[in-house]
Amino acid sequence: MSAYLHSHLTAASAGERLFEQAAKSWRDTAHAGEVGRLAAEVSEDKRALEEVCEQLHSSMPAYKKPIAWAGAQIAALDPLNPLHSIEGAKGQLEVESLISAVTGKLLLWKTLQVLSSEDKRIDPERMERLSSRAAAQILTLETLLLDTCRTRLAPAPKP
Length: 159
Prior knowledge:
Oligomer: single chain
Distance between the termini: 59 Å
Largest sheet: none
Order of helices and strands: HHHHH
Shape: elongated
């Protein structure tokens, strides 16, 4: 299970940076509060995963930490949206990538919840709360995506 948790920790570091960049991209919009709140929650979720890893004696080994750091730095560059624009296809793909990242996190929490029946170090109620929060984050992102897609992707009116 350690390798699985370490992979999610690496992804969580990258996800944290992606959400920080998204919060900057959306800061001057009507959705700034939502995206900022999501960025804060994603950081909290990363800390929760670190705590779970400690409880399971699966903390990230020192030799893997540079890999997680490098992944976070690449995520900060935001290869899908290097100009951090919320416009056009790049903005759309950025929101879709955030949904994908949170979906992976949701499946992590659900997996740990299932495993909690056999590993009493895992708190099933906490996994349920984290799963519920991830599901709510996905709904928020889907709403943001669909409410704003017309401004990004609709064809310009013909003169």
